[in-house]
């Protein structure tokens, strides 16, 4: 367990098994980790022991688990701790470099390294200066399999210099003038946080007129007499010291000369200063803050714009619109930003050109590889930045070029990729990728571990998982192996692998059941398999009924001294024990002697004031729970009727004018001749008195007309007879019988919109591509929009396809273009290639579309095809695969054919890619498999003249005969010129087809038969033939039948155990026949030696007609033991003719399909030829003799 740290505790099995073993990306790890934690938190501690044991057993290069920040600022009052934690097996050893040189930790008495860790602790208890240890540190973690590195850690000590007091001369300004009170705190590390206060430690009130800038200075857009104070002070606090330094700058009161009438002045910028434009560079991911503070009388308002478009949702406006903020900048935020300050006298603008650069950031971060011997793979390190970063590779902390003095034929570096070829044991190492530009750098470690291991299960055996019905659940199966095992799930040991539909298998081995039902109960088996073996584990799933409260407690009121009763009736699964607990006001309820709890309720006798509150019933089982709450109100005796009478009245504790401003004030027209002003009414607790009503004021903006006002008790007022879409200033005030409340801020509302009166003109297109086109038009006069301009809205639809006979959907689509430039243009994307399109454009405000522009027709160019409509891969037999597909729904041009690429897949090994090409009218192909032990992966794509379309990928199914559908009782009954073939089966009738293959005269013939019954019969006309094995021993050539059937789950009868056994038995019988035949011939074939070994020889040798000598006696004419007698008692002879063996007779096949003829002998041979017995030469007689 010493190998584990906090990061593994958050996702133990997933990090070890997926990141280190399965090459899994970080987003999948996060997904599966969350699923794991949600589903198996209760089993967490149990699994940790397996992970710890696994890490202990498997050799692994070092992996950095924890390190300090790159820019590390420390508090000088504390000890300095520089973190470096790593794991590996064997346990890594640690070393450090400081400023690029070896740092000898043992020689410095203030520096210690933690046990089993590389973390440094620098102590200053016995003296020393933290500043002496500033510098750049880097940690190295090493074991026998490689070296991992941390980032270079820049250690700096926080500095908070003293701020000397200053006494400044009084600031004398005239009323209405602008003023800037400078702060200028001394620099610190990190920079201090500044703010302005007075001597009473109260913050200086800031508003549109007075505010603090980003540099800490206090800006007055115009000075008023009330700004004269004696105690303006700028203060600063430092992050690490947490010390406030007060009155660093003490200002005598700004002396403000009061003028009888302050002259109005146009705006001018206090910040930024100088020209009418400025530039700023910011790094991607950092915070962007743009500031515009303006002086003027009246106080100017600030508005922000971005050239070429609206401000996006990332933009936030702070400090009374004076600061534009984007918390995390991206490249799209670059451009020209404009701030405009205006008041009644005039306006002024300032442009800020923002340039976004970027320190390196990851596109593809290298990940750990665990490879088996002879496997090939690659490490990829891709990063982006501005400017583009430089990629450098290191191995075990040294530049890879320095380690490549001798060429390594199994490793090659190609830019940002290292390619490994046929790796071998002993070549494990840790590789580092460094991506850098002058804005920063990235460093990533990725180990390559060469491991050869059969699958192992890491989880507990035979787990029991309980889940509530209709809930999602996960069955866990953590596993490991190298090469990467293939994992499949089975239910109750039957059927094919579970994946798809109700089930989903994650790469970490977990099986998700999306909605558990009662029929999902059972035993689930996960099987991990690679070329070195297989391992399996089982999980038992039980589906339970939910625990729920069927009668919940209800709110009730009870008089003091009476009894209150809350119901809580529960329904749950009978096999799950439950507990019922009660809470009062979210705290455990102590029952004591007075409160009584039974199975379905809680009783509270003799209710008193302390019993009032909210009571919650909670019922829990081991896997779920349910809660319900109700409130008890205790009433005083005799006051119940009065309480009911005043229930609907609010009597405030104090009465006064309203002190709240109604929120949600807005003005918007519902018609083109009105404006509806609405707001949120005050709450009862905010009214402060009776007779609440509202005063509403409105007037045309920028016209100088008098305010119109009305008083209403409702929450809206409609202003009639307005002009179309004109701006109004609106304000609101709440009143009651005790006086008016505060006025709201002035907001801008608009009267109603009308339909735009003019269309865009000269709509035309250019740069027509297969999927996009440039659109151009002449904009409308803004005065004709008659509302808030929203966009130029393009309506377009597909009139037809240029492919003959292809019907298309003519549904209209829209795309909006926001543009206010003189010559607008836009790009219309996502078009269908090789199609006829039509379009027109309107200008749109918030409510209406304007009249349409001219219509434009155009034709997109030919493109690449979509996916074929389907791609079926059916394996009828182990020797071949049938592929079938259909043309794409959207060919996107003229189809010229298809390409089929395929390769063998065996575990983690893949074979050479092979390709077949087909004409466009070919939609099926049968592939003979060169390697029946492998699965095959197929990639099908349609082609046009432009190129190949989207690839439809698929894998050959597992050919298995372990399913329930089988074939049995295959029999072949031959006749003179045909054979009757029959068999039984249990395949689906009407949806199956049988393929009968038979060999005749060395040629393979095939017939297909539809399934029409549980027993099938087929007559095959076969001209049976014979073949000679030798002049003496002959046999009949049989027609061997192979019967297979194919359906969705194919079964090959040739791999059935009973069929193989039957064939072996037939072969054994034939072999015995042949052996006996040849043994009898080798002994002369006359008679058994045992019958003649004791007879004396005659004095004369007689020579037979064939030239052989025959030693015989009078007993020679007697039948040999075991031979057959003829009908007349004589011994029959054989002249080895085919007729003698019964050609044309009633020979029969046995049930196993073999042929055994009924051998007969001739009756018309001479007695003189009877000396040459036929018994020995007849195979049938040889069998009798053997018997």
Task: Walk me through this protein's architecture.
It is found in: Cell membrane. The chain crosses the membrane at residues 35-58, 1018-1046, 1058-1079. This is Neurofascin homolog (chicken) a. The structure is a single chain. The chain is mainly beta and 1187 residues long. The protein is 8% helix and 42% strand. Strands 2, 5, 6, 9, 10 and 11 form a 6-stranded mixed β-sheet that branches. Strand 7 and strand 8 (120-122) form a beta hairpin. Helix 2 packs antiparallel against helix 3 and helix 7 packs across helix 9. The longest helix is centred in the last third of the chain and has 26 residues, at 1057-1082. The protein is extended. Mean pLDDT is 79; it is low at 1-53, 242-253, 638-653, 1024-1051 and 1085-1187.
Largest sheet: 6 strands, mixed
Overall residue-averaged pLDDT value: 79
What is the 3D form? extended
Protein structure class: mainly beta
Radius of gyration: 47 Å
Helix content: under 10%
Number of H/I helices: 9
Poorly predicted spans:
1-53, 242-253, 638-653, 1024-1051, 1085-1187
Termini, distance in Å? 74 Å
Q: What percent strand?
A: 35-45%
Secondary structure elements and their pairing?
Blueprint: H1 6-10, H2 12-19, H3 26-40, H4 44-57, E1 60-67, E2 71-74, E3 80-82, E4 84-89, E5 93-98, E6 101-103, E7 111-113, E8 120-122, E9 135-143, E10 146-149, E11 153-157, E12 166-168, E13 172-174, E14 179-181, E15 193-197, E16 210-212, E17 218-220, E18 233-237, E19 244-251, E20 255-257, E21 265-271, E22 277-283, E23 288-291, E24 293-297, E25 301-306, E26 316-318, E27 323-326, E28 335-342, E29 347-364, E30 369-371, E31 377-380, E32 382-386, E33 390-395, E34 398-399, E35 411-414, E36 417-420, E37 429-437, E38 440-450, E39 453-457, E40 463-468, E41 473-475, E42 479-482, E43 486-491, E44 503-505, E45 511-513, E46 522-530, E47 533-544, E48 548-551, E49 556-559, E50 564-567, E51 569-571, E52 579-584, E53 587-588, E54 596-597, E55 601-604, E56 613-620, E57 625-635, H5 640-645, E58 666-668, E59 674-678, H6 684-687, E60 693-700, E61 708-712, E62 716-720, E63 727-736, E64 739-743, E65 747-750, E66 761-766, E67 773-778, E68 791-801, E69 813-817, E70 825-828, E71 835-844, E72 856-859, E73 871-877, E74 880-885, ...
Parallel strand pairs: 2-11, 12-19, 13-20, 22-29, 30-38, 40-47, 49-57
Antiparallel strand pairs: 1-4, 3-8, 5-6, 5-9, 7-8, 9-10, 9-11, 14-17, 15-18, 16-17, 18-19, 21-24, 23-27, 25-28, 26-27, 28-29, 29-32, 31-36, 33-34, 33-37, 35-36, 37-38, 39-42, 41-45, 43-46, 44-45, 46-47, 48-51, 50-55, 52-53, 52-56, 54-55, 56-57, 58-59, 59-62, 60-61, 60-63, 63-64, 63-65, 66-67, ...
């Amino acid at each position: 367990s010493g190998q584990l740290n906090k990061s593994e505790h958050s996702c133990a099995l997933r990090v070890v098994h997926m990141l280190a073993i399965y090459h899994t990306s970080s987003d999948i790890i996060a997904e599966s980790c969350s699923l794991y934690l949600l589903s198996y938190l209760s089993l967490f501690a149990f699994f940790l022991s397996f992970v710890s044991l696994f890490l202990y057993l498997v050799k692994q290069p070092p992996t950095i688990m924890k390190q300090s920040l790159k820019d590390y600022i420390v508090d000088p009052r504390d000890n300095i701790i520089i973190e470096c934690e790593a794991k590996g097996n064997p346990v890594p050893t640690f070393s450090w470099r400081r400023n690029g040189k070896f740092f000898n930790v043992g020689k410095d008495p203030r520096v210690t390294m933690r046990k089993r860790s590389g973390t440094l602790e620098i102590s200053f208890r016995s003296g020393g200066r933290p500043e002496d240890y500033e510098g750049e540190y880097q940690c190295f973690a090493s074991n026998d399999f490689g070296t991992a590195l941390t980032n270079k850690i820049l250690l700096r000590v926080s500095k908070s210099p003293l701020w000397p007091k200053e006494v400044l001369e009084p600031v004398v300004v005239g009323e209405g003038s602008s003023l800037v009170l400078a702060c200028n705190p001394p620099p610190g590390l990190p920079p201090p946080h500044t703010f302005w206060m007075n001597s009473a430690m109260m913050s200086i009130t800031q508003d549109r007129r007075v505010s603090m800038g980003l540099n800490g200075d206090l800006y007055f857009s115009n000075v008023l007499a009330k700004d004269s104070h004696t105690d303006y002070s700028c203060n600063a606090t430092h992050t690490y010291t947490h010390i406030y330094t007060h009155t660093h700058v003490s200002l005598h009161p700004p002396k403000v000369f009061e003028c009888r009438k302050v002259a109005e002045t146009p705006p001018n910028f206090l910040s930024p200063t100088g020209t009418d434009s400025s530039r700023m560079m910011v790094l991607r991911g950092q915070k962007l803050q743009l500031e515009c503070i303006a002086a003027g009388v009246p106080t100017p308002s600030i508005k922000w714009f971005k050239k070429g478009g609206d401000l996006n949702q990332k933009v936030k406006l702070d400090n009374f619109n004076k600061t534009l903020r984007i918390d995390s900048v991206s490249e799209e935020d670059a451009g020209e930003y404009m701030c405009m300050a205006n008041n009644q006298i005039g306006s002024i603008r300032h442009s800020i050109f923002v340039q976004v650069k970027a320190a390196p950031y990851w596109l593809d971060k290298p990940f750990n590889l665990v490879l088996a011997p002879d496997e090939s793979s690659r490490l990829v390190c891709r990063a982006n930045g501005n400017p583009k970063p430089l990629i450098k590779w290191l191995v075990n902390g040294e530049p890879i070029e320095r380690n490549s003095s001798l060429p390594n034929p199994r490793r090659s570096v190609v830019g940002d990729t290292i390619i490994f070829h046929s790796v071998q044991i002993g070549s494990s190492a840790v590789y580092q990728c460094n991506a850098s530009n002058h804005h920063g750098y990235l460093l990533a470690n990725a180990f390559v571990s060469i491991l050869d291991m059969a699958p192992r299960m890491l989880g507990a055996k035979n787990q029991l998982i309980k889940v509530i019905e209709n809930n999602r659940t996960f069955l866990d199966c953590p596993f490991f192996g190298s090469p990467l095992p293939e994992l499949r799930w089975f239910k109750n040991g039957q059927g094919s692998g579970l994946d798809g539909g109700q089930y989903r298998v994650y790469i970490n081995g977990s099986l998700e059941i999306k909605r558990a039902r009662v029929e999902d109960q059972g035993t689930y088996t996960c099987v991990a398999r690679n070329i070195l073996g297989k391992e399996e584990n089982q999980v038992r799933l039980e589906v339970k009924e939910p625990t729920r409260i069927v009668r919940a407690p209800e709110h009730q009121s009870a008089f003091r001294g009476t009894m209150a009763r809350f119901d809580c009736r529960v329904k749950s699964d009978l096999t799950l024990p439950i507990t019922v607990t009660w809470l009062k006001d979210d705290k455990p309820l102590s029952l004591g002697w007075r409160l009584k709890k039974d199975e379905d309720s809680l009783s509270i006798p003799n209710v008193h004031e302390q019993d009032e509150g909210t009571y919650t019933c909670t019922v829990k089982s081991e896997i779920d729970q349910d809660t319900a709450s109700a409130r008890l109100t205790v009433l005083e005796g005799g006051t119940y009727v009065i309480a009911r009478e005043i229930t609907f009245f609010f009597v405030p504790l104090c009465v006064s004018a309203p002190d709240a401003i109604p929120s949600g004030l807005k003005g918007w027209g519902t018609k083109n001749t009105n404006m509806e002003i609405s707001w949120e009414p005050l709450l009862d607790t905010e009214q402060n008195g009776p007779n609440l009503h509202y005063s509403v004021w409105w007037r045309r903006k920028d016209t100088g007309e008098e305010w119109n006002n009305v008083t209403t008790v409702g929450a809206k007022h409609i202003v009639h007879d307005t002009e179309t879409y004109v701006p109004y200033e609106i304000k609101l005030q709440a009143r009651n019988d005790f006086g008016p409340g505060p006025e709201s801020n002035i907001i801008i509302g608009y009267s109603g919109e009308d339909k735009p009166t003019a269309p865009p003109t000269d709509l035309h297109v250019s740069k027509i591509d297969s999927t996009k086109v440039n659109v151009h038009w002449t904009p409308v006069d803004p005065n004709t929009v008659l509302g808030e301009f929203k966009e130029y809205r393009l309506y377009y639809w597909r009139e037809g396809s240029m492919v003959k006979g292809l019907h298309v959907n003519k549904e209209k689509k829209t795309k909006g273009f926001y543009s206010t430039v003189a010559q607008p243009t836009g790009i219309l994307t996502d078009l269908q290639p090789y199609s006829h399109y039509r379009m027109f454009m309107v200008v749109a405000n918030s409510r209406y579309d304007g009249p349409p522009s001219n219509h434009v027709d155009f034709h997109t160019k030919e493109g690449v095809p979509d996916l074929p409509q389907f791609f079926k891969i059916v394996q009828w037999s182990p020797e071949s695969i049938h592929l079938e597909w259909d043309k794409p729904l959207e060919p996107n041009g003229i189809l010229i054919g298809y390409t089929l690429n395929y390769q063998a897949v065996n575990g983690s090994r893949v074979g050479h890619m092979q390709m077949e090409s087909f004409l466009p009218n070919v939609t099926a192909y049968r592939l003979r498999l060169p390697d029946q032990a492998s699965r095959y992966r197929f990639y099908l794509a349609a082609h046009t003249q432009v190129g190949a379309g989207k690839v439809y990928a698929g894998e050959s199914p597992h050919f298995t005969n372990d399913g329930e559908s089988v074939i049995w009782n295959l029999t072949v009954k031959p006749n003179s010129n045909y054979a009757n073939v029959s068999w039984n089966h249990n395949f689906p009738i009407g949806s199956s087809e049988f393929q009968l293959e038979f060999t005749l005269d060395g040629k393979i013939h095939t017939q297909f038969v539809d399934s029409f019954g549980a027993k099938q019969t087929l007559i095959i006309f076969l001209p049976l033939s014979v073949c000679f094995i030798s002049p003496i021993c002959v046999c009949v050539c049989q027609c061997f039948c192979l019967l297979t059937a194919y359906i969705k789950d194919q079964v090959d009868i040739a791999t059935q155990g009973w069929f193989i056994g039957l064939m072996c038995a037939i072969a054994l019988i034939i072999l015995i026949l042949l052996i006996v035949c040849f043994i009898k011939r080798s002994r002369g074939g006359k008679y058994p030696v045992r019958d003649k070994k004791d007879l004396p020889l005659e004095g004369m040798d007689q020579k037979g007609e064939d030239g052989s000598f025959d030693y015989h006696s009078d007993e020679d004419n007697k039948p040999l033991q075991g031979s057959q007698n003829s009908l007349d008692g004589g011994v029959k002879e054989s002249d080895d003719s085919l007729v003698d063996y019964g050609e044309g007779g009633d020979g029969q096949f046995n049930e196993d399909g073999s042929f055994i003829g009924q051998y007969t002998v001739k009756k018309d041979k001479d007695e003189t030829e009877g000396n040459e017995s036929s018994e020995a030469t007849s195979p049938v007689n040889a069998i009798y003799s053997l018997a």
